[in-house]
User: Which sequence fits this backbone?
Protein backbone atom coordinates (compact mmCIF):
# COMPACT_ATOMS: atom_id res chain seq x y z
CA UNK A 1 0.00 0.00 0.00
CA UNK A 2 3.04 2.21 -0.31
CA UNK A 3 1.27 4.35 -2.82
CA UNK A 4 3.54 7.32 -2.34
CA UNK A 5 7.13 7.17 -1.34
CA UNK A 6 8.44 9.30 1.46
CA UNK A 7 11.03 10.88 -0.80
CA UNK A 8 8.81 11.83 -3.72
CA UNK A 9 7.22 15.15 -2.88
CA UNK A 10 6.40 16.15 -6.43
CA UNK A 11 4.08 13.32 -7.44
CA UNK A 12 0.89 14.47 -9.08
CA UNK A 13 -2.13 12.80 -7.39
CA UNK A 14 -4.10 13.25 -10.60
CA UNK A 15 -1.66 11.13 -12.50
CA UNK A 16 -1.78 8.42 -9.87
CA UNK A 17 -5.57 8.43 -9.80
CA UNK A 18 -5.80 8.33 -13.57
CA UNK A 19 -3.22 5.57 -13.79
CA UNK A 20 -5.12 3.53 -11.21
CA UNK A 21 -8.44 4.04 -13.01
CA UNK A 22 -6.84 3.04 -16.30
CA UNK A 23 -5.28 -0.06 -14.78
CA UNK A 24 -8.62 -0.98 -13.20
CA UNK A 25 -10.34 -0.73 -16.58
CA UNK A 26 -7.78 -2.81 -18.42
CA UNK A 27 -7.48 -5.48 -15.73
CA UNK A 28 -11.27 -5.82 -15.72
CA UNK A 29 -11.16 -6.60 -19.43
CA UNK A 30 -8.24 -8.98 -19.02
CA UNK A 31 -10.08 -10.80 -16.22
CA UNK A 32 -13.03 -11.31 -18.56
CA UNK A 33 -10.67 -12.63 -21.21
CA UNK A 34 -9.05 -15.00 -18.72
CA UNK A 35 -12.45 -16.21 -17.58
CA UNK A 36 -13.54 -16.82 -21.14
CA UNK A 37 -10.47 -18.96 -21.73
CA UNK A 38 -11.02 -20.94 -18.52
CA UNK A 39 -7.98 -19.55 -16.71
CA UNK A 40 -9.58 -19.20 -13.29
CA UNK A 41 -6.45 -18.53 -11.25
CA UNK A 42 -5.35 -15.85 -13.65
CA UNK A 43 -8.82 -14.34 -13.55
CA UNK A 44 -8.65 -14.24 -9.76
CA UNK A 45 -5.23 -12.56 -9.74
CA UNK A 46 -6.41 -9.97 -12.25
CA UNK A 47 -9.47 -9.27 -10.14
CA UNK A 48 -7.27 -8.67 -7.12
CA UNK A 49 -5.24 -6.17 -9.13
CA UNK A 50 -8.44 -4.55 -10.38
CA UNK A 51 -9.77 -4.21 -6.82
CA UNK A 52 -6.54 -2.61 -5.64
CA UNK A 53 -6.48 -0.22 -8.60
CA UNK A 54 -10.12 0.67 -8.06
CA UNK A 55 -9.49 1.32 -4.37
CA UNK A 56 -6.64 3.68 -5.21
CA UNK A 57 -8.73 5.50 -7.82
CA UNK A 58 -11.63 5.95 -5.39
CA UNK A 59 -9.41 6.94 -2.49
CA UNK A 60 -7.76 9.61 -4.57
CA UNK A 61 -11.16 10.85 -5.61
CA UNK A 62 -12.22 11.17 -1.99
CA UNK A 63 -9.16 13.28 -1.27
CA UNK A 64 -10.07 15.59 -4.13
CA UNK A 65 -13.84 16.03 -4.24
CA UNK A 66 -15.04 17.24 -7.63
CA UNK B 1 -14.26 -12.32 -24.76
CA UNK B 2 -16.30 -15.36 -23.72
CA UNK B 3 -14.57 -17.61 -26.17
CA UNK B 4 -15.31 -20.83 -24.32
CA UNK B 5 -17.53 -21.67 -21.38
CA UNK B 6 -16.64 -24.06 -18.58
CA UNK B 7 -18.65 -26.73 -20.35
CA UNK B 8 -17.11 -26.13 -23.73
CA UNK B 9 -15.20 -29.28 -24.67
CA UNK B 10 -13.94 -27.79 -27.88
CA UNK B 11 -11.65 -25.24 -26.31
CA UNK B 12 -8.75 -24.43 -28.55
CA UNK B 13 -5.45 -24.54 -26.62
CA UNK B 14 -4.01 -22.10 -29.12
CA UNK B 15 -6.54 -19.53 -28.08
CA UNK B 16 -5.74 -20.10 -24.42
CA UNK B 17 -2.02 -19.82 -25.04
CA UNK B 18 -2.45 -16.69 -27.10
CA UNK B 19 -4.75 -15.15 -24.54
CA UNK B 20 -2.26 -15.91 -21.77
CA UNK B 21 0.62 -14.43 -23.77
CA UNK B 22 -1.43 -11.34 -24.49
CA UNK B 23 -2.39 -10.94 -20.85
CA UNK B 24 1.24 -11.40 -19.82
CA UNK B 25 2.31 -8.62 -22.18
CA UNK B 26 -0.33 -6.18 -21.03
CA UNK B 27 0.10 -6.88 -17.33
CA UNK B 28 3.84 -6.33 -17.71
CA UNK B 29 3.15 -2.88 -19.09
CA UNK B 30 0.59 -2.12 -16.41
CA UNK B 31 3.05 -3.20 -13.71
CA UNK B 32 5.59 -0.73 -15.09
CA UNK B 33 2.94 1.97 -15.07
CA UNK B 34 2.01 1.14 -11.48
CA UNK B 35 5.66 1.20 -10.46
CA UNK B 36 6.14 4.57 -12.12
CA UNK B 37 3.24 5.97 -10.13
CA UNK B 38 4.56 4.52 -6.88
CA UNK B 39 1.75 1.97 -6.48
CA UNK B 40 3.89 -0.85 -5.17
CA UNK B 41 1.13 -3.20 -4.04
CA UNK B 42 -0.65 -2.87 -7.35
CA UNK B 43 2.63 -3.48 -9.15
CA UNK B 44 3.12 -6.65 -7.12
CA UNK B 45 -0.38 -7.94 -7.87
CA UNK B 46 0.08 -7.27 -11.57
CA UNK B 47 3.40 -9.09 -11.53
CA UNK B 48 1.72 -12.10 -9.96
CA UNK B 49 -0.86 -12.07 -12.74
CA UNK B 50 1.90 -11.68 -15.34
CA UNK B 51 3.81 -14.65 -13.89
CA UNK B 52 0.70 -16.82 -13.96
CA UNK B 53 -0.11 -15.78 -17.52
CA UNK B 54 3.45 -16.41 -18.61
CA UNK B 55 3.41 -19.84 -17.00
CA UNK B 56 0.24 -20.75 -18.86
CA UNK B 57 1.65 -19.51 -22.14
CA UNK B 58 4.83 -21.51 -21.70
CA UNK B 59 3.03 -24.61 -20.45
CA UNK B 60 0.77 -24.63 -23.46
CA UNK B 61 3.79 -24.28 -25.69
CA UNK B 62 5.38 -27.30 -24.07
CA UNK B 63 2.26 -29.31 -24.77
CA UNK B 64 2.38 -28.32 -28.42
CA UNK B 65 6.00 -28.17 -29.55
CA UNK B 66 6.48 -26.13 -32.71
Assistant:
Amino acid sequence: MNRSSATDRNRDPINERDAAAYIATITRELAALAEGAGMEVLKYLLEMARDEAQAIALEEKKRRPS
